[in-house]
Amino acid sequence: MLPAGEHAMTEVPxxxxxxHGHITQQWEGETRHILEECYKRLSGHPLPKKVEVRLCQTPxxxxxxxxxxxxxxxxxxxxxxxxxxxxxxxxxxxxxxICMERLLALSPMARLGTLRHEAAHTVLHGALAYYVCRIPRxxxxxxxxxxxNLSLLQQVLYYCSIAVKDFEATRLLLxxxxxxxQVAFAQAQFMPSDExxxxxxLARGNPQARLLFFTSQLKALLLSWPxxxxxxxxxxxxxxxxxxxxEAEERKRWLGLVGSIAKQLGNDTHENIRLTLRKVLLELx
Length: 285
Hints:
Low-confidence stretches: 1-9
Strand order of the largest sheet: 1-2-4-3
Largest sheet: 4 strands, mixed
Number of strands: 4
Number of helices: 13
Number of domains: 2
Structural class: alpha/beta
Strand content: 5-15%
Radius of gyration: 19 Å
Distance between the termini: 62 Å
Shape: globular
């Protein structure tokens, strides 16, 4: 029994910080405070015992660290070096990699939303099994019947997996009262890109390339779906702005596909990834 007037402390994960480059004590302290507050709010869910947090000052330091890890562990995923933050469990425990230069370029509310989003991943996807995604047999057979290259299919699977996990993170955070920060986080994902515009111009005439392009955009579209359903985020308007270079009919088709995917997602991450991959193969190839 606790003495009268005292309350049990919510046990949060041990946060093990490592700094790459010049990271001030203020940045590290603020990051720790935001993460610990979020873990306390999520204490109704099983929490990891330990989370490693890597704070990288610049994008190049984040990219260098990621590449060294991939070379050592034999990991072949592409694209995560461009994220503001990323998460993994390649070493057997959840880990956050945060680029402080990119994070500090966001609004204060979007920074909160970003770090809480990453904390949600360590709760939902804190084991190695969530980062070793094998191509489901039914999806492999479907892709083979359509003549799809195996390496391309693997990249599409990766894009589907990160989109599904982001959807699940948003879905976890909303009932905890994290609304404004998650809207700000979602808004930060919808930035028009000249590189994406060029990629679309190159991809539009090839069905497999179109599929790859769509799934590369699926992360922003799917993570925002719970916010749209809650009446907090006009997904169609943001998608029209970000993808304005794509024909309106094609954008409408894509949003319909995103909604169809979101409505079938349950609580099993691996099954959600399989369903998403199969859906895009059926609809876009």
